[in-house]
Write a structure and sequence with these properties.
Catalyzes the phosphorylation of methylthioribose into methylthioribose-1-phosphate. Homodimer. This protein has 391 residues and is an alpha+beta fold. The chain has 2 domains: 113 residues, Phosphorylase Kinase, domain 1; 274 residues, Aminoglycoside phosphotransferase (APH), C-terminal lobe (Aminoglycoside 3'-phosphotransferase, Chain: A, domain 2, Alpha-Beta Complex). The protein has 14 helices and 12 strands. The protein binds adenosine-5'-diphosphate and magnesium ion (MG) (3 copies).
């Protein structure tokens, strides 16, 4: 084996790496293309057209490009991503890419090529409905969040696992960009001048800011289970038959409502940008929760053996808190994707300027209501009814 000294790959050295690893025949002609978005990581697609074989190499870069500058960012996140994919593979092998090879010194993961699927955000924007999406994500959430929690693992085993997901630098990005910056006049914020009044109102809204601070506390302090940490619709590949979750580099032990809330919010952008999609999207939100709740409860009843988990009402308490947290986290995601640093194509891609502004105003006010009123929702059906009558 070669010495493993970190260097960013290029299209030539990526080909050398997969050949050295014996993933392709030595003499075969390989095509290699860098297909990533280029902010934090490199992603190469390497294909042997003759034998119809291909793989993806993802490599972390030692810096992140943010607001035109670059700041150092630990390569350790490649290992976190690879370790999370391996855990997901144990519980839901059909819902994540197969990992062929990982190398922590090179910050590299070589995995199954999912190019036959589409990034869910793009597909939804183009009008796909992905009938199996919510059932699959509900199952992914239930299994990943149950099997890594204290309700399944012994507390010492869970603490040992949590140590592998020590991820302070990526957590800090979320802590700042999701929970703090959008609620204050911060340099990272980015929004249209026409939204200034709406944004000022939000910055002066002390009720909202207090509730957002409480949600931040949950994110900072509740190490309930291994969460993906970046489960938006750009981290999911879909077709009408398949669903695959990718990109868990933000994974750490956090509150279980967070992944659910991020997924909800990124579905909601589809209604906010096109009210004609209300039924499809509300069905997905409701079905995500219902499949999560059903599978999670079944696992709890069959595989949770600690005495305290059998106390009458305790599972209901955990689930209700999870739902209310998810609604609050979703509200934070709606706001930060509207006026914070990282926007979404669902909103920014609305062609008419007036409609785009209106959609962004709706996103801000829905986000605000969800954060402030999250404790009013006792069940998913009440939340769905509320969304149906919003505005
Ligand atoms: P980042 O952390 O930089 O966002 P992602 O893991 O989300 O990286 O990958 C960025 C892009 O690379 C994806 O949006 C997708 O287009 C492509 N990509 C990533 N993984 C795969 C894969 N397994 N198969 C095909 N394309 C992929
Ligand atoms: Mg990206
Ligand atoms: Mg990504
Ligand atoms: Mg990523």
């Amino acid at each position: 084996a070669k010495e493993k000294i970190y260097e960013p790959l290029n299209e030539d050295s990526a080909v050398v790496l997969v050949k050295d690893l014996g993933l392709f025949e030595k003499e075969i002609l390989l095509e290699c293309e860098e297909i990533g978005d280029g902010n934090l990581n490199l992603v190469f697609r390497i294909a042997d057209r003759l034998n119809n074989k291909s793989v993806i190499i993802k490599q972390a870069l030692p810096y992140a490009k943010v607001v035109g500058e670059s700041w150092p960012l630990t390569l350790q996140r490649a290992q976190i991503e690879a370790d999370a994919l391996k855990i997901y593979h144990q519980h839901t092998p059909n819902l994540v890419p197969k990992v062929h090879y990982t190398n922590n010194d090179l910050a590299v993961t070589i995995m199954e090529d999912l190019s036959h699927l589409k990034i869910t955000r793009s597909g939804l924007i183009e009008g796909e409905s992905y009938p199996l999406l919510s059932g699959h994500i509900g199952e992914f959430l239930a299994k990943s969040l149950f099997y890594t929690s204290d309700y399944y693992l012994t507390p010492p085993a869970k603490k040992a696992l949590a140590k592998k997901f020590y991820n302070p630098e990526l957590c800090k990005i979320t802590e700042d960009l999701v929970f703090t910056d959008p609620f204050f006049n911060s340099e990272t914020n980015e929004f249209e001048e026409e939204l200034t009044d709406d944004v000022q109102k939000l910055w002066n809204d002390l009720v909202l800011k207090l509730e957002a601070a409480k949600l931040k506390k949950s994110f900072l302090t509740e190490g309930e289970a291994l969460i993906h940490g970046d489960l938006h619709t750009g981290s999911i590949f879909s077709s009408n038959e398949e669903t695959k979750v990718i990109d868990p580099e933000f994974a750490f032990f956090g509150p279980i409502g967070f992944d659910i809330g991020q997924f909800f919010a990124n579905l909601l952008f589809q209604i906010i940008s096109d009210t004609g999609k209300e039924k499809i999207i509300l069905d997905h939100i409701s079905n995500t929760w219902n499949s999560f709740q059903t599978i999670y409860s079944d696992l709890w009843l069959s595989e949770s053996h600690e005495k305290y988990t059998r106390v009458e009402g305790y599972l209901d308490y955990v689930l209700k808190k999870c739902l209310q947290d998810a609604i609050g986290f979703a509200g934070c995601e709606l706001i930060r994707r509207t006026i914070g640093l990282a926007h979404v194509q669902d909103l920014d891609g609305i062609p008419s300027f007036d409609k785009r502004l209106q959609a962004k105003r709706n996103s801000l006010s829905l986000g605000r209501e969800m954060i402030v009123h999250r404790a009013d929702f006792q069940e998913i059906s009440g939340f769905i009814d509320y969304l149906r009558t919003f505005q």
